[in-house]
TrEMBL record:
A GO biological-process term: proteolysis
Source organism superkingdom: Eukaryota
Residue span, Peptidase M41 domain: 1-74
A GO MF term: ATP-dependent peptidase activity
Identification of the protein by name: Peptidase M41 domain-containing protein
InterPro entries recorded: Peptidase_M41, Peptidase_M41-like
Length: 88
């Protein structure tokens, strides 16, 4: 995304083709931008999982208990409602 599509605020909206002869500093800048993007995405994913931990735990426990859930049942569990059906 950084190199081929130019998605970088620091490097600007410029795409660098793979066959371009790039200076070492430019390559280092591209690598730095990629590293920042990956780290930001990982942080965002971790924060999202942590903020939804209670819902994920409820869903995991329901899956252990029932093995399968319909979409409607999964939403009920995520929202904290009890399911009324036989366990496996």
């Amino acid at each position: 995304m950084i190199r081929e599509m130019g998605f970088s605020t620091r490097l600007g909206p410029r795409a660098y083709r793979t066959d371009d002869q790039l200076a070492p500093n430019t390559l280092a800048s591209i690598d730095g931008e990629i590293q920042e993007m990956v780290e930001a995405a990982a942080t965002r994913a971790l924060n999202l999982l942590q903020s939804k931990r209670d819902e994920l735990d409820r869903l995991a426990l329901a899956l252990i208990e029932y093995e399968t859930l319909s979409a409607e049942e999964a939403w009920k569990v995520v929202k904290g409602h009890k399911l009324e059906r036989n366990t496996v």
